[in-house]
Amino acid sequence: MTLLMLLFWLIAGGTLQMLVPAWRHMGQPAFPFLLGVVLYAAVNKKARYFVLTALLAGVLEDSLSLAPLGYSACAFLFAGGIALLLRRDFFADKARIVMVFGAAGSATATGVMALLLRMNGLVDLSRGDIGRRMAGAGILGAVLMPILFGLMRGLERRLGLGEDS
Fold first, then answer.
1. Which DSSP state fits 160?
2. Angstrom distance (rounded) from CA 139 to CA 16
3. Partner of 85 at 20 to 30 A CA spacing, among 37, 39, 43, 114?
């Protein structure tokens, strides 16, 4: 049941990722809906669910964008891996902690993605452009993650799923 719920959120996140335009300010970062699902799985689920969610979300995001297949999965695994390592040290049900996870995860994923694209010569971004994009993504992540985590946790409770499935 946990896997079905995560698949539902991946489909919903992918849909929102396509419908909501990128934020025009601070480097035009995209709203991190799919990353939110990955971070939720990293913080609240077993590691195997996190890895599967990160890979599926990465393939979905790359399929919906012009990025080469696998780049987003790498960025999601990196950002979610940090959240996975830190999840025992924080209470992930507190809004301010979720904001920190969202900001750090979004900035990290955006930075990793930008560096991968830059190293392979696919984009010509300066360090300032990458920094602005990471800052914008961090702000979006801090605002969006508490809402997304609340919706996901609410659906889990409504379906009667365990918190640490």
1. T
2. 18
3. 114
Do 58 and 76 contact (CB within 8 A), yes or no?
A: yes
Burial class of residue 21 (count of CB atoms within 10 Å of its CB; 0-12, 13-18, 19+)? exposed
Over the stretch 35-81, which tens digit does the pLDDT of each residue have? 999 999 999 899 899 999 999 999 999 998 888 999 999 999 999 99
Q: What is the dihedral of CA 50, 143, 100, 68, to 10 degrees?
A: 50
Q: Which two tokens stand for residue 100?
A: 């920190």
Q: CA 163, CA 165: separation in Å to the nearest integer?
A: 6
| 55, 72 contact by CB (below 8 A) | no
Q: Which residue has the tokens 């996190």?
A: 50
* Residue 63 CB partners (closer than 8 Å, separation 6+): 69
Domain ranges of the chain: 2-20+27-159
In angstroms, the CA 119 to CA 128 distance is 16
Rounded to the nearest 10 degrees, the angle between the axes of helix 71-86 and helix 33-44 is: 40
